[in-house]
């Protein structure tokens, strides 16, 4: 969360001359309400079910760069759909995460104690990100443009 998937995803798509899509944006458009509203109104389990459908639809329809929400990989079927695709895991340390997400209420899972909540989420998820990734790019101290270049380099290496 806040590592730059949406920001870098758009830049990456521009650099590759491909389309860009973001499953959180798809969900907001389909539901007609914000991610935070879905969490508040219906809870995380309902959000995850909506997200699972949105990711499957996007992977089926879209041929380009796709940014996922940070929790999409919690679902085993979603992880299976990612197998065989080029998946970039953007990483960062906790201090960078707090700087980037701040007290932004748009991310309900970090709303109360961002530092502690982020650490706990990463402990639970790191192995899943590593499982689905075909390339890992550290983003600390890098601008979005530098991260994009590093992702291109990492993807290029993977092609060889
Ligand atoms: N490399 C970066 N350096 C500094 N700030 C960044 C970087 N990448 C993204 N940001 C900022 O961090 C915030 C979260 O970025 P976003 O792309 O929405 O992340 P994600 O989609 O992974 O949650 C935004 O305010 C964005 O401008
Ligand atoms: O990591 C998560 O569980 C979430 C990440 C968010 O997307 P970003 O990773 O784009 O912030 C969004 O899907 C929702 O708030 C839940
Ligand atoms: Mg995003």
TrEMBL record:
| Residue positions binding substrate | 24, 48, 70, 125
Q: Which UniProt keywords apply?
A: Amino-acid biosynthesis, Aromatic amino acid biosynthesis, ATP-binding, Cytoplasm, Kinase, Magnesium, Metal-binding, Nucleotide-binding, Transferase
InterPro entries reported for this sequence? P-loop_NTPase (IPR027417), Shikimate/glucono_kinase (IPR031322), Shikimate_kinase/TSH1 (IPR000623), Shikimate_kinase_CS (IPR023000)
Q: Which cofactor does it need?
A: Mg(2+)
Q: What Pfam families does its record include?
A: SKI (PF01202)
The listed locations are: Cytoplasm
Please give one Gene Ontology molecular function term for this protein: kinase activity
Q: Which positions make up the signal peptide?
A: none
Q: What is its EC number?
A: 2.7.1.71
Which reaction is catalysed here?
shikimate + ATP = 3-phosphoshikimate + ADP + H(+)
Annotated Mg(2+) binding sites:
6
Q: How is the cofactor bound?
A: Binds 1 Mg(2+) ion per subunit.
* Protein residues bound to ATP: 2-7, 107, 142
What pathway is this protein a component of?
Answer: Metabolic intermediate biosynthesis; chorismate biosynthesis; chorismate from D-erythrose 4-phosphate and phosphoenolpyruvate: step 5/7
Output the superkingdom of the source species.
Bacteria
Q: What is its main location?
A: cytoplasm
What protein family does this chain belong to? Belongs to the shikimate kinase family.
What this chain does, per the entry, is described as: Catalyzes the specific phosphorylation of the 3-hydroxyl group of shikimic acid using ATP as a cosubstrate.
Its quaternary organisation is: Monomer.
Tell me the protein's name. Shikimate kinase
Q: What is the lineage of its organism?
A: Bacteria, Bacillati, Actinomycetota, Actinomycetes, Kitasatosporales
């Amino acid at each position: 969360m806040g590592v730059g998937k949406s920001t870098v995803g758009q830049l990456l798509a521009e650099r590759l001359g491909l389309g860009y899509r973001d499953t959180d944006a798809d969900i907001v458009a389909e539901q007609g309400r914000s991610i935070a509203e879905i969490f508040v109104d219906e809870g995380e389990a309902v959000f995850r079910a909506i997200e699972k459908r949105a990711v499957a639809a996007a992977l089926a329809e879209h041929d380009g760069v796709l940014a996922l929400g940070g929790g999409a990989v919690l679902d085993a079927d979603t992880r299976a759909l990612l197998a065989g695709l080029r998946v970039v895991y953007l990483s960062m340390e906790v201090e960078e995460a707090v700087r980037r997400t701040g007290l932004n209420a748009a991310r309900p899972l970090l709303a109360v104690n961002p530092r502690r909540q982020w650490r706990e989420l990463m402990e639970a998820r790191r192995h899943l990100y590593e499982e689905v990734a075909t390339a890992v790019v550290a983003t600390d101290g890098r601008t979005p443009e530098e991260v994009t270049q590093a992702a291109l380099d990492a993807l290029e290496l993977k092609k060889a």
